[in-house]
Design brief:
By secondary structure, the protein is α/β, with parallel strands linked by helices. Helices cover about 35% and strands about 20% of the residues. It contains 10 helices and 11 strands.
């Protein structure tokens, strides 16, 4: 005989309160595993968005500001981004999964340049939308190269004209926008200033319109699919770029040798709480001995500054204490050797 849930079998010895508690527990467990209780609306949109463009047009800066936090490294030097970086921007009714790519360029002199171009081209596969980022003040052969790749794209392409703050007034910018609109059939044209965060809310809303209706692709509180080891190596590389400026070419990379986290504990001797700490050992590889001396600096001053700044950023990102140890080693010819590149973690770019 079947019974409704609000009926009690008088012959049963089971306590109805036990069933209520079990049901409540099951609901809590289901809620926990369904994205921690986040209710996903029926009209939710999500999809992959490739950010492409020539080197040094502000692609990484744009992604960092769209995410509201730093994820992809930035530098005034072109070709700072070497890997495809995935950043996830979750909103109330949408989730945009951004792929920040290395800048596309014509010169493929070394193996690493070829890998970077392959990474940028492969990002155009299996995405729902493309953001083509250009500099408001400059159009080059590399911009032309990117545009030619996009003309046959099956997905919508939004032209993002960056650095619009370099114009003094709107009247100067309007002719440029009209001129760029003639280049190809763009789905939308959105002028922004990535560095100042200008017009980014409008860009987010525009992106959302072109994402397909489907549940989120990642957890709503996740910001990247990259590992903490990878993010740590990118932070170190950024600090090297910023500290050395034009002193050092791109013949360097960073490899995380050890990444160990000790959870917070109570000291047996003092009884005091010892906070959690992550111990990171990293090696900076350069191609020539002269570059090693530049990275280390006089009496180790440059390397110390790089380590201090990297540790500060890591503690903000990982939200705990970091103990960072840096080493500098010479590995000749690594940037033009595909086997060496793969051993240093470039196989997936």
């Amino acid at each position: 005989m079947s019974m409704h849930s609000d009926q009690v079998n008088p012959d049963s010895n089971e306590n109805p309160e036990i069933h209520d508690n079990e049901n409540q527990a099951n609901q809590l467990i289901d809620q926990f595993f369904s994205d921690e209780g986040v209710t996903i609306p029926a009209d939710f949109r999500s999809g992959f968005v490739a950010i492409v463009g020539r080197p040094n047009v502000g692609k990484s800066t744009l992604m960092n500001h769209l995410l509201g936090q730093k994820l992809s490294i930035t530098s005034r030097k072109p070709q700072t981004t070497r890997h495809k970086i995935v950043g996830i921007d979750s909103r109330e009714k949408s989730q945009a999964v951004f792929v920040d790519t290395p800048g596309m360029h014509k010169k493929e002199v070394r193996a690493i340049n070829k890998m970077m171009n392959r990474a940028a081209h492969s990002a155009l596969r299996d995405v729902n939308l493309v953001l083509f980022v250009v500099d408001a003040q400059k159009w080059t052969q590399n911009d032309e190269l990117v545009m030619e790749k996009l003309k046959n794209a099956e997905m919508p392409v939004i032209l993002v004209i960056n650095k619009l703050d370099t114009f003094e007034n709107k009247n100067e910018a309007l002719p440029l926008i009209r001129e760029r609109a003639k280049l190809m059939n763009f789905a939308e044209i959105v002028p922004v200033s990535a560095l100042r965060g200008a017009n980014l809310d409008h860009l987010r809303d525009t992106i959302e319109k072109y994402l397909p209706f489907q549940p989120p692709l990642y957890s709503m509180d996740q910001i990247t699919d990259r590992s903490e080891r990878f993010l740590a190596s990118e932070i170190i590389r950024e600090k090297i770029m910023r500290q050395l400026g034009e002193e050092l070419p791109y013949d360097l990379t960073v490899q995380i040798e050890s990444f160990k986290t000790e959870e917070e504990t109570i000291s047996e001797k003092t009884g005091r709480l010892k906070p959690a700490c992550t111990y990171i050992d990293a090696t900076i590889f350069v191609e020539r001995a002269g570059q090693k001396a530049i990275v280390i600096g006089e009496k180790g001053a440059k390397l110390k500054r790089i380590g201090m700044e990297a540790r500060t950023d890591m503690e903000k990102m990982f939200e705990q204490k970091i103990m960072l140890t840096l080493w500098v080693k010479v590995k000749g010819g690594w940037s033009d050797d595909e086997r060496a590149l793969k051993s240093l973690g470039y196989s997936d770019i």
